[in-house]
Backbone:
């Protein structure tokens, strides 16, 4: 919190205490109660943050600087999804996030397209500020959610950009509603994710987060970058994590059960049913350090596991790319060797240029 706001809180707290003491001294219930209510309001404001106030702590009244508006769209009874609108003029370009991610993950990348497109992002159910119903995480339900959002926003035909597991939604939506899709862009997303849970079970144990790493969103950001090469926008970290007033990370917004339901609900992609032009941008893993930048800190057991997991991941990815080449007819394919899974961050310029050139066609 800024020093002026802190001083203001202190002055008001002293005034509240003065009211209480004066009320006790004069036997005035009104003064004492007034002072007590003022003090209570100050405590609540300190804990939850005042709208428009300077930040109280790294986890609270922070302001997202990405130039978007936020709205919520009802897609089913008691289910609403967060929609980010970065503005722009031109055909609609809609971004869909990967597993455990939210639309804020595109806060740095998506606005670069507003010169030629009306750019939006959707946070799927279960994540971030969107609703967390007990069901609806299979591909068919996610496609229905996407259609409901587009209908609500009166977007009859869009270009879809999907990262990671959002590729399932791109493929299924384009197959079900070919007249509503002008183009598809897969950001390391055109894979068969039906066995991804089994695949990930062979990964080494996750890196251990130290107290300094979890002390703030910035600490979490640095931890992910060092250990996994992922530069995640702070807005996303704040959307997917729960932080104490001090800024300390205390848990995830989304319970593990929802991740499990998402993985259980994936199907096999039917690329042959896709009629829209497609751009497939893949991160090609060349070596184990591509996946585990902090591998030098591994013990011998973890290092051996990481090497074996990388080989399995490479085989799985190559199988997926071969399927795309066979079945997604006419797709333009860009393979970025050594890129991170978040290709739009690790290879920003290449990815942005490829998308622009593809959509301009």
Residues:
């Amino acid at each position: 919190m800024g020093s002026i706001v802190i001083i203001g809180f202190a002055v008001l707290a002293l005034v509240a205490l003065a009211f209480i003491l004066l009320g006790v001294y004069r036997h005035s219930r009104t003064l004492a109660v007034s002072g007590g209510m003022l003090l209570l309001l100050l405590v609540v404001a300190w804990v939850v943050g005042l709208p428009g106030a300077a930040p109280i702590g790294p986890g609270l009244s922070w302001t997202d600087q990405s130039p978007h508006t936020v709205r919520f769209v009802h897609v089913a009874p008691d289910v609403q999804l967060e929609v980010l609108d970065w503005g722009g003029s031109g055909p609609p370009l809609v971004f869909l996030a990967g597993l455990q991610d939210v639309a804020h993950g595109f806060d740095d990348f998506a606005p670069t397209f507003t010169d030629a497109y009306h750019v939006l992002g959707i946070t799927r159910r279960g994540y971030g500020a969107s609703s967390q119903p007990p069901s609806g995480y299979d591909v068919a339900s996610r496609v229905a959610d996407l259609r409901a959002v587009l209908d609500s926003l009166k977007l009859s035909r869009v270009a879809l950009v999907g990262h990671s597991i959002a590729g399932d939604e791109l493929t299924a939506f384009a197959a079900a509603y070919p007249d509503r899709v002008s183009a598809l862009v897969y950001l390391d997303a055109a894979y068969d994710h039906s066995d991804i849970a089994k695949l990930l079970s062979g990964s080494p144990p996750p890196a251990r987060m130290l107290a300094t790493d979890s002390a703030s969103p910035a600490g979490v950001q640095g931890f992910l970058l060092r250990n996994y090469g992922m530069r995640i926008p702070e807005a996303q970290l704040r959307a997917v994590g729960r932080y104490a007033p001090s800024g300390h990370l205390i848990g995830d917004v989304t319970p593990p059960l929802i991740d499990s339901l998402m993985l259980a609900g994936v199907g096999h992609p039917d690329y042959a049913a896709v009629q829209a032009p497609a751009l497939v941008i893949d991160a090609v893993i060349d070596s184990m350090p591509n996946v585990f930048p902090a591998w030098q800190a591994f013990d011998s057991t973890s290092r051996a596991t990481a090497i074996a997991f990388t080989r399995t991941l490479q085989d799985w990815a190559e199988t997926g790319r071969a399927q795309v080449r066979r079945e997604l007819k006419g797709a333009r394919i860009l393979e970025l060797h050594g890129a991170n899974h978040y290709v739009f961050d690790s290879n920003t310029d290449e990815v942005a240029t490829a998308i622009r050139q593809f959509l301009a066609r």
User: Anything to note?
Assistant: The chain has two domains: 3-48, 69-360. Residues 69-360 form a domain with the Rossmann fold fold (CATH 3.40.50.1820). Residues 300-327 form the longest helix (28 residues).
